[in-house]
Amino acid sequence: MDMLSCDLDRTNEIPLYEQLYLYIKREIIEGRLHYQTKLPSKRKLADFLEISQNTVEAAYEQLTSEGYLEVLPRKGYFVMASEDLEYVGKLDVPIKTDNVKNESFRYHFHPSIIDTAGFPFQQWRKYAKNVMDERNSDLLLLGEPQGEFELRTEIADYLYHARGVKCSPEQIVLGAGIEILLQQLVLLWDAKTKYGVEDPGYHLIPRIMKTYGRDLYPLQVDNSGVKVSEIARAGIDVVYVTPSRHFPYGTILSVNRRNKLLNWAAEADGRYIIEDDYDSEYRYSGKSIPSLQSMDQKGKVIYMGSFSKSLMPSIRISYMVLPHQLMERFRSELSFNNSSVSRMDQHILAQFMRHGDFGKHLNRMRKIYRRKLEKITEMLKHYADKIQVIGENSGLHIVLVVQNGLDETLLVKKAETANIRVYPLSQYTFEKKYEGPPQIILGFAGIPEEDLDDAITSLMKSWGI
């Protein structure tokens, strides 16, 4: 055949390779692509559809693995007869997701992407080799429900010296992501518990609360952080905050509001504060902001942290520090849950921390990210008449307030036309009621320093600035 006329929707959340895969699959099932029909080469189809060869290859390989196509060496891809297939079922409707797609962009500004080039593979490999040994065969068995004591000990020591968090290893619970730990917390409280969360904020919280049928109240944020006055008026029992660096604006919860928040929690039994210490490792000016937990005298703060930004997202190791009274309830009500984190990964990380490599890695990455942030903010000064920058003192992303007459949907689409992926603020708001010029979240960590100049220039050009 000459070519496949597939209408790809570049504004759709479904990746391009998946759209192409679904199109070809449908053509085969419905009999429009016949047995032994040769498909266009990857290069020709990529040129025709104006997509990358990697996108075409991903679609072809998926179809081959499912038996819809066969590949003949030096000849190409050919359609299998539908009657020769064991079973052809109804096409699944793809589930939309907000996760980072494996879609290829020239520049990807997602706030969760890190600089992988800075990862200390040699040191990590050394500790992995130590752990992956017959002498540690017991690690093949289930471990402690709270996670390995060795890693919890290292985390407790790190939190005390880096964040002022006062806790023992016995108070720490490990989980495969903040989401897993949040779900465990929800199970500790009554179904009538009302939750408050910053808006805009961490976008997975509403999904978790909706799944469990819990009431969620969005709390407004200003230059001093979350508005504590709203909490009491709304009758909230548990509030989720990012006091050291609000996501996504980067604001710091003021000392006055911290004290008010702690006093609010201490006024009644059943009130708690979940402190997500988001991006606290990456502050580039002034001293590190003390954790809210370090100020807590009444056991009202649940401290949460993760190694996703400080080490790697794929390791899926997060932790929470529970006050003593909640820790007792956790042991009595949830200790039947086995730890969701690989024991071997836990021991590798424990050795990595114990021998000082984690601290060295943080210091090195902090310098790299600071240079990137300084470079990107300096470049954006050239566009100050159209672009305002928020949150430029810490973290791995900034927020751009864009004033060029385009709305956020057009800004995202025009960036994608230039093969650049950016994320609108509305993706992280719950009520979507914010007013004013559109705002774009720009994660810069994953873009090589030498490419930042072209990345920003290309983005501004796509927006007509």
Report on this model:
It is a single chain. By secondary structure, the chain is an alpha/beta fold. The protein has 3 domains: 1-100, Arc Repressor Mutant, subunit A, CATH 1.10.10; 107-118 and 361-462, Aspartate Aminotransferase, domain 1; 121-358, Type I PLP-dependent aspartate aminotransferase-like (Major domain) (Aspartate Aminotransferase, domain 2, 3-Layer(aba) Sandwich). Helix content is 35%, strand content 15%. The protein has 14 helices and 16 strands. It has helices at residues 16-29, 42-49, 53-65, 121-131, 149-163, 178-188, 204-211, 229-233, 255-266, 324-334, 343-354, 357-380, 408-417, 452-462, and strands at 69-72, 76-79, 107-108, 172-175, 194-199, 215-222, 225-226, 238-241, 272-276, 301-306, 318-321, 387-390, 397-402, 420-421, 423-424, 439-443. An 8-stranded mixed β-sheet has the order 4-11-10-9-8-5-6-7. A 4-stranded antiparallel β-sheet has the order 12-13-16-15, covered by helices on one side. Strand 1 (69-72) and strand 2 (76-79) form a beta hairpin. Helix 1 crosses helix 3 (53-65). The longest helix has 24 residues, at 357-380. The protein starts with 15 loop residues before the first helix and ends with a helix. Its cofactor is pyridoxal 5'-phosphate. Residues 14-82 form the HTH gntR-type domain. InterPro entries: Aminotransferase_I/II_large, HTH_trans_reg/aminotransferase, PyrdxlP-dep_Trfase, PyrdxlP-dep_Trfase_major, Tscrpt_reg_HTH_GntR, WH-like_DNA-bd_sf, WH_DNA-bd_sf.
